[in-house]
Amino acid sequence: MITVLAVLLVIGGVIFIHELGHFTFAKLTGMRVEKFSIGFPPRLFGKKIGDTDYCISAIPLGGYVKVAGVIDESMDVDGVQGKEPWKFESKNAGQKSVYITGGVVFNLLFAALIFCLLTIGAGIYDPSPGPIIDEVIPELPAEAAGIQKGDRILAVNGTIVSSWENMAGIIHAFPNDTIMVRWLHNEDEFEKPIVTISNKILKGSKLVDVGMIGVSPVFTHRNAGFFEAVGQGFRNTWYWLKITVISLKMLITGEESLKNIGGPIFIAQLAGRSAKSGLAPLFGLMAIISVNLAFINILPIPAFDGGHLIIIIIEATIRRPLSIKTKLRIQQIGLAIILTLMAVVFYNDILRLFRGGI
């Protein structure tokens, strides 16, 4: 039950926020919203209020807002033609673009808000500058070498270290390599060769392999100020956006396998485990997925927001609308691409279940 509720909150929540972005900007630009759907057609149930049908649909792969005059995921071409002031086609390219990108904007702002609130709730943990060990991660090289909580690292590969940053920089330069580490335990000095592990971390705009031995510094806790929390919220959103972009690049270049892509089942597993760890990890996962959804939707793929944006740009360039038949074909191609991608991620998810992985 916890997992089910977590999935409904995480997946349903980020989809709802995305569609709320479209809905809000449609209203602000004077467009008539005909349908607000969580899920893709066919429609299951809902209620019509005013001009808008608020509903739940059968295919739980996303959602959509149907605006008068738009050919979208619903494939509905009724009422597309015409230049009535409440229709999509009556708006200029700027207004259309605002509506199309509204979901992406709301997802990013939603992620920043969650990260901001999490920072306010948890506060700020500043690492102490000295190379003193606070935690030794079990079953990693530092523990095997005998390094303990409270020990001070004195030197790495013969270089005296005066700060945690200095020490980490040297260790990071030697992934999957042997380094000589000298440390102080109580009043006794020890020196041993340690074989590092390799891990990927974000440096600038790249994921790079760095050496690690499995230790963490002493942290001091303090309350976060409002503006500091807001800044941290946007920094964390930017960080995860960069991670998402880099991950896609690695998939395109073959550095990362398609087998590692996760879908709804994988997200459900993550949501369930996060929920059991507490609300903070669950909402953190929700923020990360919101960032991912924003980026994926802005890709220039038919049926995605980015695909709609490309059509707007093309029509603004040629100064005439594309034919209904062309737009309908573009949406059909886009849905075929989406269904193919979903087949891949569902296949990966099922394989993970049989292998017992997450």
Helix content: 40-55%
Proportion of beta-strand residues: 15-25%
- Tally of helical runs: 9
pLDDT below 50 for ≥5 consecutive residues: which ranges? none
Polypeptide structure, described:
This protein has about 350 residues and is α+β, with helices and mostly antiparallel strands. The protein has 2 domains: about 1-120 and about 260-355, no CATH class; about 125-220, Pdz3 Domain, CATH 2.30.42. The protein has helices at about 1-30, 95-120, 140-145, 165-170, 225-255, 265-275, 280-300, 305-320, 325-355; strands at about 35-50, 50-65, 125, 135, 150-155, 160, 180-185, 190-195, 195-205, 205-210, 215, 220. The protein starts with a helix and ends with a helix. The relative contact order is 0.13. The mean pLDDT is about 85.
Mind sketching the topology for me?
Elements: H1 2-28, E1 33-49, E2 52-67, H2 93-122, E3 124-127, E4 133-136, H3 141-145, E5 152-156, E6 159-160, H4 164-172, E7 178-185, E8 188-195, E9 197-203, E10 206-212, E11 215-217, E12 219-222, H5 226-253, H6 264-277, H7 279-298, H8 305-318, H9 324-355
Antiparallel strand pairs: 1-2, 3-12, 4-11, 5-6, 5-7, 7-8, 9-10
Helix pairs in contact: 1-2, 1-6, 1-7, 2-5, 2-7, 2-8, 5-7, 6-7
